[in-house]
From TrEMBL:
Protein name: Peptidase M61 catalytic domain-containing protein
Originating species: Talaromyces stipitatus (strain ATCC 10500 / CBS 375.48 / QM 6759 / NRRL 1006) (Penicillium stipitatum)
The organism's place on the tree of life at top rank: Eukaryota
Gene3D superfamilies xrefs: Neutral Protease Domain 2
Length: 524
């Protein structure tokens, strides 16, 4: 692929706040005939729309400044858009592409989703590159193009423009206009945290903790990258993929640990197609697994803290009322309120714990080695999808590997061995024992949290929520706890509701659990 040049220019209003980004790209193309794909673009990631560029919003000209017309074709699920040419283009033609990226308009009631769209935050702009960039199609895969874009952006954005880029989980850059950072700009450090709005936790303290941890994580996964960057963005809306409300410091660190693990093990393509949420159990499960295991291996967690967090995760799996939903049915419900959203995390975690135990107990290659193999395949842009993964573990465990995968995918309950803790704790005396635990239950349909009316409707009058004082008709404000935190069995759930149009909100707190129990397991 010939040289590619990308120019990103933020446009500011009279008060110095960034409003849009003007984008100009220059590249030399291979020969194209009418109807060939020139660019590929991501229209949405999960339920989050990107900038939605059209053929009319993109101006394409050749070396003679003549306009080349485009038209678009969307994929079946409207997740990607192909920009196709309406005329032939000769090999070696130098093309200029101009368009403008505008931020997504959000408010307090915007649906939760992955933070990929470009949004405003305290006078700056932030977003994943998949929302900003049209990716030229080389006809034989665009990995070289993506690499060129990254190299060009690194060179361009490092020249005092006030912008930075990072490589995110889709190999595209993210762009931030910066306000604050840890450590200070004068300090030369391979680890950095950036934010636009002051977060509701001590970012400097968190930075010191992660600065000790993240380079060790990279070494563990065989990554020789020398620069690590964390970007924090404030959400205007309620979303567990961001940090909107003040949360316990240990929960914040656990959350970021999970997200940081995503830099390395990720299930990807097998035959050239993108990953699917049907396989989200792998990405979320392995992040849950290592966000627990690595802090213990690195002696950041004590043995008691490790077991406590282990118990929380196990409890969340067994007490999830949607625990039997099949993987194939999770995708369309993943970003809706409710416990289905937690299935890939909980089920994937249990799968990897069970797999680590079987490999350890049978004297096979450890899970860490197999995961590092997948990471190397991904780094080399080689197939690293579900079929590749299953072939790796089938070599170690035979047909049992496929049977376990099918059972997990179909929602069959996994029962861990009582001595499973021995995989990580030498001479462990911890035993996993059956216990009765209350199932997660808010006391009203969780769809109330995302309904247009946003009022309590269908309250179970026998529930703990009703006992605490919640009533049908109460208006739901955004001041309520994160459901993800409710995985931790002892935690209470708090809502501030408005009743009968009164100005003063009512604070109602209860234990979000049913009165009946299900069989769970805990270390003792």
């Amino acid at each position: 692929m010939a040289a590619l040049s990308v120019n990103l220019r933020p446009v500011f209003d009279s008060e110095g706040a960034a409003q849009v980004i003007d984008i100009t790209m220059f590249f030399t193309t291979y020969a194209k005939t009418k109807g060939d794909i020139l660019f590929n673009y991501t229209l949405k990631r999960a339920n989050v729309p990107t900038t939605q560029f059209t053929a009319q919003s993109v101006r394409l000209t050749d070396s003679h400044k003549s306009v080349i017309r485009l038209y678009t074709v969307d994929t079946e699920r409207s997740t990607h858009r192909e920009f196709r040419v309406e005329e032939d283009i000769s090999t070696g033609e130098r093309l200029t592409v101009q368009y403008q990226a505008t931020p997504r308009q959000v408010n307090a009631y915007t649906s939760c989703g992955p933070p990929v769209a470009m949004e405003k935050d305290n006078g700056g702009l932030s977003g994943a590159g998949l929302a900003l960039l049209l990716i030229p199609s080389a006809g034989d895969g665009n990995s070289d193009v993506v690499h060129d874009i990254l190299q060009e952006l690194r060179a361009h954005l490092g020249k005092g423009s006030g912008l930075l880029c990072m490589k995110d989980y889709l190999f595209f850059p993210s762009v931030f206009l910066l306000v604050a950072r840890y450590p200070a700009a004068a300090v030369d450090s391979p680890f950095r945290i950036y934010w636009l709005s002051e977060p509701p936790f001590n970012a400097y303290t968190l930075g010191k903790q992660l600065q000790k941890l993240v380079p060790r994580m990279a070494m563990f996964f065989g990554d020789d990258e020398k620069l690590f960057q964390v970007f924090i963005r404030r959400n205007e809306y309620k979303c567990a993929s961001g940090l909107v409300c003040t949360r316990d410091e240990d929960i914040v660190q656990d959350f970021l640990m999970h997200e940081i693990v995503h830099n390395w093990p990720r299930l990807g393509f097998t035959t050239g197609g993108p990953e699917d949420l049907i396989d989200g159990w792998f990405n979320e499960g392995i992040a849950e697994y290592y966000s627990l295991i690595l802090p213990y291996i690195f002696s950041i967690l004590t043995e008691d803290q490790f077991i406590q967090r282990f118990n929380w995760r196990i409890s969340g799996y067994y007490t999830n009322p949607d625990r039997a939903v099949h993987n194939k049915d999770v995708q369309d419900r993943f970003w809706l309120p409710g416990r289905v959203h937690r299935i890939p995390y909980q089920r994937g975690f249990m799968y990897f714990v069970q797999l680590a135990y079987k490999l350890h107990n049978l004297g096979k290659r450890p899970l860490d080695d197999l995961i590092r193999k997948m990471i190397k395949l991904r780094a080399a842009n080689q197939p690293h999808g579900i079929h590749v993964w299953l072939s790796l573990i089938e070599i170690e465990l035979g047909s049992m590997a496929l049977e376990d995968y099918k059972d997990m995918s179909n929602g069959k309950q996994m029962i861990l061995s009582p001595d499973v803790a021995g995989v990580w704790i030498s001479n462990s005396k911890w035993k996993l024992e059956p216990v009765a635990q209350e199932e997660f239950y808010l006391g009203f349909p969780e769809e109330n949290l995302s309904s247009e009316s946003r009022v309590i409707n269908g309250l179970d009058l026998q529930s703990r929520a009703a006992e605490a004082g919640l009533q049908d008709g109460d208006e739901i404000t955004l001041e309520y706890g994160f459901l993800v935190d409710a995985d931790v069995s002892p935690k209470l759930f708090t809502m501030n509701v408005r009743r009968s149009n009164q100005e003063t909100l009512r604070k109602i707190t209860w234990w979000p659990r049913s009165w009946h129990t299900v069989q769970s397991y805990q270390f003792a």
